[in-house]
Amino acid sequence: MSPSIVHLSIPVVDIASTLTFYRDLLGCDATRILDDRVDIAFFGHHLVAQLSPEEAAHRSVSIGRNPYPLRHFGVIVTPDLYDAMLARLCAAGVSFAMEPDRIFIGTPREQTVFLVFDPSGNAVEVKGMPKPAEVFSTT
After folding, report:
1. pLDDT, tens digit, for every residue of 83-119?
2. DSSP of 55-66, one letter per residue?
3. pLDDT tens digits, residue range 13-25?
4. Long-range contacts of 76-79 (CB under 8 A, 24+ apart)
5. Which tops the pLDDT comparison, 44 or 58?
6. Distances (CA, A) of 40 to 29, 32, 110
7. What is the pLDDT of residue 59?
8. End-to-end CA distance of the chain, in Å?
9. What's the rounded Cα separation, in Å, for the pair 31 and 120?
10. Average pLDDT over residues 117-138
């Protein structure tokens, strides 16, 4: 495991819906909650959701077979965590920007994947792989 932690700051339209999405649906811990920001332990990394409705993200481009936001971030997790997140999102009636799919079939990079927008329009991609480090495979 790397001793480094990625830090990412994203704009959000409100704190309450941000907490519901990241904490309750994705299963992340909210480590500090203030009126204008929330620190989120995003799978070992530091995500700061900062209140800024005018800066909130939007859909940007089409890539491949579906509209796909060029600006996005996400996490690569084991299949059990992927399935648990997917189940919570489905139970909550969340719409998918990219429906759950299996891609790169038959390669070390084979993965299940989906993409959702948080309540502020930030695109979050979740990939499920038995060996997440295989995402760096060149085959």
Report:
1. 999 999 999 999 898 899 998 899 888 999 999 999 9
2. G-----EEETTE
3. 999 999 999 999 9
4. 76/111, 76/127, 76/128, 76/129, 76/132, 76/135, 77/43, 77/126, 77/127, 77/128, 77/129, 77/132, 78/128, 78/129, 78/130, 78/132, 79/112, 79/128, 79/129, 79/130
5. 44
6. 6, 7, 28
7. 58
8. 23
9. 20
10. 89
Per 3-state DSSP, the chain is made up of helix, strand and coil in percentages (nearest 5) of 25, 40, 35
Comparing 67 with 74, the larger pLDDT belongs to 74
E-only strand ranges, the chain: 7-12, 29-33, 37-42, 45-51, 61-63, 66-68, 72-77, 96-103, 111-117, 123-128
Residue-range domains of the chain with CATH: 7-136 (3.10.180.10)
Residues pairing with 95 in the sheet = none
Spatial distance between the Cα atoms of 102 and 51, rounded to a whole number of angstroms? 34
Which residues, in sequence order, are CB contacts of 65 under 8 Å at separation 6+?
none
pLDDT value at position 108? Answer: 87
pLDDT at 67: 63
- Whether 8 and 18 have beta carbons less than 8 Å apart is answered as no
